[in-house]
Structure formats: structure tokens, C-alpha cells
Amino acid sequence: MVDRISAETRSRNMSRIRSKDTKPEMQLRRIVYGMGYRYQLHVKSLPGCPDLVFARRRKALFIHGCFWHQHEGCKDSHLPKSRLAYWSPKLVRNAKRDIENERKLRELGWDTLTIWACEITDENRLAHRLQEFLM
Ligand SMILES: [Zn+2]
Q: For residue range 55-72, what is the model confidence (pLDDT) as tens digits?
């Protein structure tokens, strides 16, 4: 019983953090759209369900939350110490899956780019990177 309750609390906490992560994605979409590129969202038929897909260019873009996808060396990726045992295996799995999905996409002939949530703050620099990736 105790376990069941704590699991429910945890998943509630998880969804709260997760919904916060959608803000960088909205920002990124706005920037890419403003640059004149059109894209498909969350294409489930591709490995890892890329966030933005430029089908004709065969390019796939991921926007990753620094915590969920464990951005290496990023201050936003730190694990809460009290929950280390709970989070650690999950996040390691996420990061491994990301690498695997990128590999699969490359094998299928797709170029991929990962933008981290913490990188959204510098819009000019980001636009420059996107331009290079998409042209
Ligand atoms: Zn980061």
C-alpha cells in the first residue's frame, strides 16, 4: 500500500516536471517557423519520435530537457540526491535510448540535431545552428 501511494506521488511529480519541459519546445518551434521552415511534429514512425521532422531534407531535430536526457556537464542535469536510487536508472536508460535512436536514424539516412533546453536562451546562436543544420 505504501509503495503504491509513493509510486502515484512520483508519477504526479514526474508529469509536473515533464510539462515544464514543453516550453523550450514551443520556443524552438517558433524560431524554426519564423525562419521559414515547415516541419512535422513528433513523428512516431521514426526512431525516438523526433520532435521536429523535415521530411524532404531528411533531417530530424530533438529538443531535450537537460534533466530527463541528462545533458552532460549541465547544471540543469543534476539529480536530486534524495531520489538518486529512483531517478538514476531511469535517466541512464533515457540517455542510452537517445544514443540508440540517433544511431538508427543515421542508418536510415537521416541527419539529426539535438538541442538542449538550456541552449534555447541564446536565440541568435540557436538560429545560426539551425540554419547550418537545415540548409
Ligand atoms: Zn543543459
A: 999 999 999 999 999 999
